[in-house]
Amino acid sequence: MASPYHSSFPLSPPSSCHGGGVLHLATRAAASSLACCCRAPAAGRDDDHDAGILQALASNGNGSVHGGQLAPQQVIDPGGEEEEAGDGGWRRGSRLRARDCAKRIMGLPVEERVKVLDLLQRDDGALTVSDYNDILSALARAGDHDSAVALFLALRPNGVAPDAQSYGTAVQCLCRKGAPDEAKEALDEMVARGFRPTVATFSAVVGCLCKRGRVTRAMEVFDTMRAVGCEPTIRTYNSLIGGLCYVGRLEEALDLLNKLKESPKQTPDIYTFTIVLDGFCKVGRTEEATAIFQDAVRNGLSPTIFTYNALLNGHCKEGNSLKAYSLLMEMCGNGGACPPDKISFSIVLQALLRAGETSAAWQTYKRMERAGFEADSRALDTLARGLCRQCAADVATLADAQEVFGKLVASGHEPVSYTYCLMAQALARGGEVDAAVSLLGEMARRGYALRKRAYTDVVRALCDRGRARDALRVLALVIARDFVPGRNAFDALLGELARQGRWPDAMAVYAAAVKRGVPVSLKRHSKEAFLMQEQTETRESSARLNVPQ
């Protein structure tokens, strides 16, 4: 993951054609032209800063600004001897030739490459520090940070003294490699040799250290920065505050934020507030995070989607899913200033489903759908189950359950067996008996296990409608899959068969139940059927004789 507080040093590759081989360039005019192409633009671009933080925050959807990055494997193996320890413990120098780097630049598989000096017509001894700086910048632009560092370490063995630009490029590349300790040592050496690092170089080291939790060392760099008269920018402060939050020093982070609010030189931006707010949310202090959110609004700052998502995530982690739902509805209705994104909806929807708040989850899903976002299959599956359960108390939700279930199937994600069973139960209770029978058949074809309550509810619904033959088919389907139907299913079918006077069929069902060890009573059903028949005959006789009931 890219560093959330990267400097504006140009490490993204520039535009060029794809090619390889060796360039032939004999004049210094070409070298000067390359220098103009390769050098870094002025530091301090706010859009780079904002984009870096946004990328880091968006990486996990909850406002986190930290992440790790392993150093890539070294591309160029210098294969030389180490320098004396007097030049710094971070050095692993070698006699690396600039020509090797030129070949490497032209062979890198990147979209854009920089054409560098034709070094084949020169010896390394003829190259100046400016020429080496152009090559270092080209390597950095191409993203080959290992080779850039290797070439920098080879400058002194090649008889070239690095200058401030050389050190600055090397420090930036070490930060990009995820080597914070080496980057700090290189920075310390740079200062010790009398060079003054730029604010971008200082900020890169502070950010790299803070990402790895080395806040104490980052503080040392911060103090050095101020000691040499380099005023930290808000990007530097944001890196430091992020590091404090990362290691759990929230009170110090909040104190630094408050000092920035009173500082005449630097003003906290919305990212500063978001970093602190997210830190408090992560440790379950959402009420304090809400106060920080409100403070940012009072200071005239507009919360970003990352600010809202951090707060939504904090509410949900604490189990306050309805508070998160209210905040989400506020985002949907505040005039489109900061509408929720897919991450916002997903955070709240999953929290509501975990909490069993099916009605609010259904409303969130519909809002999400209207906004053009698709819920993931797991959320749809859980929502379908919740709506099916609600059908027991409110049959009106059956249509909603069918909609979500159909959406889940249409999306190509197979519902789990439990969802199929709940859907069959809901259909049976809602009067959609044929659909319930069809769904049970589909489950049998797919090899799913049939839950006892599901097929029992279907059998009851069929028997209530006098469809004993269809109920028999369902029971036969269950038995054919080596399941033992429950007592309630047998009782429902026996009762309907007895009511219809179909005693041979009733005896066959009774025998099947006894054979499988299910305790049922045919005598009770016989007595109930006899009483029902007697009552029916009495009513018919009274009707014929016009006797009042």
TrEMBL record:
<dbReference type="Pfam" id="PF13041">
    <property type="entry name" value="PPR_2"/>
</dbReference>
<feature type="region of interest" description="Disordered">
    <location>
        <begin position="64"/>
        <end position="93"/>
    </location>
</feature>
<protein>
    <recommendedName>
        <fullName>PROP1-like PPR domain-containing protein</fullName>
    </recommendedName>
</protein>
<dbReference type="Pfam" id="PF13812">
    <property type="entry name" value="PPR_3"/>
</dbReference>
<keyword id="KW-0677">Repeat</keyword>
<dbReference type="InterPro" id="IPR011990">
    <property type="entry name" value="TPR-like_helical_dom_sf"/>
</dbReference>
<dbReference type="InterPro" id="IPR033443">
    <property type="entry name" value="PROP1-like_PPR_dom"/>
</dbReference>
<dbReference type="InterPro" id="IPR050872">
    <property type="entry name" value="PPR_P_subfamily"/>
</dbReference>
<feature type="domain" description="PROP1-like PPR">
    <location>
        <begin position="347"/>
        <end position="510"/>
    </location>
</feature>
<feature type="repeat" description="PPR">
    <location>
        <begin position="416"/>
        <end position="450"/>
    </location>
</feature>
<dbReference type="InterPro" id="IPR002885">
    <property type="entry name" value="PPR_rpt"/>
</dbReference>
<feature type="repeat" description="PPR">
    <location>
        <begin position="269"/>
        <end position="303"/>
    </location>
</feature>
<feature type="repeat" description="PPR">
    <location>
        <begin position="163"/>
        <end position="197"/>
    </location>
</feature>
<keyword id="KW-0809">Transit peptide</keyword>
<dbReference type="Pfam" id="PF17177">
    <property type="entry name" value="PPR_long"/>
</dbReference>
<feature type="repeat" description="PPR">
    <location>
        <begin position="128"/>
        <end position="162"/>
    </location>
</feature>
<feature type="repeat" description="PPR">
    <location>
        <begin position="341"/>
        <end position="375"/>
    </location>
</feature>
<comment type="similarity">
    <text>Belongs to the PPR family. P subfamily.</text>
</comment>
<feature type="repeat" description="PPR">
    <location>
        <begin position="451"/>
        <end position="485"/>
    </location>
</feature>
<feature type="repeat" description="PPR">
    <location>
        <begin position="233"/>
        <end position="263"/>
    </location>
</feature>
<feature type="repeat" description="PPR">
    <location>
        <begin position="304"/>
        <end position="338"/>
    </location>
</feature>
<feature type="repeat" description="PPR">
    <location>
        <begin position="198"/>
        <end position="232"/>
    </location>
</feature>
